[in-house]
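This follows on from our talk about sequence and fold. I would like you to pick a protein and set down its sequence and fold. Go ahead and set the record down below:
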Amino acid sequence: MWRAESRSLRLTCVSEQAAKLLGYPAEGWLDASFWNTCLHPEDRERTLAVCRAVAADGEGREFVHRLIAADGNALWFRTCVRRPSLSRGPSSELYGLMVLLEQGPRQDEPLQHSEDHLLTLFNALPDAVFFKDGAGQWLAVNPEALKLFGLVGGEYQGKTDVELAGYAPFYREALLACSETDRRAWERGHLSRMEENIPNPDGTMQSHDVIKIPLFHPDGTRKGLVVLARNITDYKIAEQERYLLFIDEQKARAAAEEAQRRSAFLAEASRLVAGTLNYEVTLAAVARMAVPFLADCCVFRLLDEDGATRVVSVAHEDASREGLVRELKQLSPDILTGADTVLRSGRSFLSGWMGEGGGARAEEQLRRIRELGFQSSMSVPLLARGHTLGVLTLVSARPGRVYGIADLALAEELALRAALAVESARLYREAEEAIKARDEFLSNASHELKTPCTSLRLGVQGLLQLTRTKPLSQVPPAFVERVLENAERQLQHLSRLVDKLLDVSTLSSGQLQLGFKEMDLSALVRNVVESYQRELARSASAVVVHADTPVVGLWDPSWLEHVIGHLLSNALRYGAGKPIEVEVESDAHSARLVLRDHGIGIAPEHQALLFERFKDPVSARRYSNLGLSLPVVRRIVEAMGGTIRLESRVGAGTTFTVAFPVNRRPIQEHVEALRASPPPS
């Protein structure tokens, strides 16, 4: 037995029995020139080529060769060469087992028998094997090699790859490539290993692991080339499938981890939303949480009651740039990719690169966008109960990060939670305001109801006390008359207060019943003014009525009387004793009631509150009022298909204009639509 280095084939260890067989000391075997000295010249190249092949592909081989013994005789050996069995990949050592043959192969039948065995093995190999001479001409190939290039049954011996390319046009490129790799193998001068692809007629490709072993004469000239080609197509396919499975697994794992991160992100957003009823604090916290997980910049804009928008929260990965973002929003509110469009449409907007525009103003915007590094953005509406409350804008400044559908879906989920926070805070604030307004209303109502009751009680108590001290016949009639007149006034006042409360109750429940009939608006106005003579006398306000021409239409006289009475009561209350003008006019399509006072007037910021229930811009300490008149008036007017508007200046008075249609069809259509709608909240 012996052991040798796989690269140089220099022996590193030899058994004592091997040393005895040839008569050389063990040190002689380990000499670098041992193989050149002891291998028979006719067997030297073949033996070394086989050892190199074993070192290259790891496949063990068995062969017969001769060694020159120390006494000069040639001894025949059958040698088996292997790489270590536990070696994985290239090994640095080879092992050899040599068996001395009692007799060498004879020139007759035994040698022929050995050659037959080798030929059978050669033809049965599953790998393609080529033997070429120094000029690259094919000397011998096995059937697998012929099938590889479609040359089965053809004459190949003595032809080069280039010449054979003419016989197999389909494999022409492959054969020419083989000729080129042969040339490179000769140039290297030692075993070469490479991967070559051979086409199939069905359009597929075969991959082969190819080993090329160049052989040289002692003088260095080319002697031959041994080529071994193993089909590794199935292995490559399996390797590709394993790789694709690995990639799919990595993608699935990344998707699962991303889904988990997004779920955790939304869970944290829900926790922030539920933490406080101050929506500005909540939106600021949500914006900071969204950066940098979902965006590099986050902006929340909300719609105010007047329809204007305002930025309530800005977060940027670089806190020092938040001011620049706000400045950019002031320069162009819609510069962050379609935010205003989202507010108008209520639909999300996804944008790519933010870098187009025109004009000096646009150039300034683009300069600041570049300074911020914005690349891609998306804007989603804040929706609650079918209404758009604002817009959430998320911007990416990272190169290569362009938002997609999955990002938009996550942004919409975040916007939904933010919208719920805003809506909950607004509902809570409205509830607080409603409770405060209700308490104020109850306080005013108590005062309003208590005042006539107190006056009535004092009058009755005075009359009762007087009758207890003297007979009723002796009570002065004038005193009794004053008490009764006062009682009548207070009862009328109480009746009107109760009517107001009943009006509100009826309108709020959606049970307003209208009875349309033909009537004269001018006559109704005159009658109502006449019924307020006592109130007019107490207020010192003179009423001038311009309603001489009949204005006939289809209205509900009972509810219309409420409208006129409410407006007249307000004019008396806030007219400051100055004249009041009432006009009735009409044209072909509408009738108008105009009531004008010259009293204290109403500030512009308070005018929007006039028609809200329980809200009165004028202090209840100055004038008695339940805060119900104008909300009742508006509801009745709208129920009859009309409109009401006001014009007022502080210190110059107020003018109310009520307009009604005069033909029946529009009124009926409006009433039917009103009945089909839900009751007001």
